[in-house]
Amino acid sequence: MTLVPSDALAILQLVARADTCATERDADGYAALFTDDAVMDGDMGTVKGTTALRDAVARIWAAEPAGTLHLTLNAVIDESGPQPAVDSVMLMVGAGPSPTVHGSARVRQIVRHTPGGWRISARSIDGRH
To answer: pTM of the prediction?
Structure first.
């Protein structure tokens, strides 16, 4: 699949919005970025569907230190498959004058164009990189 520049930009913004929602602890906004049949898997388990996804991330974020920033780094779109994929690094950083790294993970997201725009259909998180 070859993307036009406007689709590539929309996809990169989608991925960045997901981590913005995570920073803001906006589970509803986060879930709205995914397709209804989305799957998220990683070190914390696997969830399917936006309701399960919303509930899972709310629990995970509640266990993080207050004010943790979720940052998307080095996002690269892979157009070699039937659906575009975005590979990136997520960095979780504590806010403040002396930031502390709380975690990092490699993330791969498969995106799909829907009537509502680009949405994430699968998100795999590997914190053991």
So the answer is: 0.92
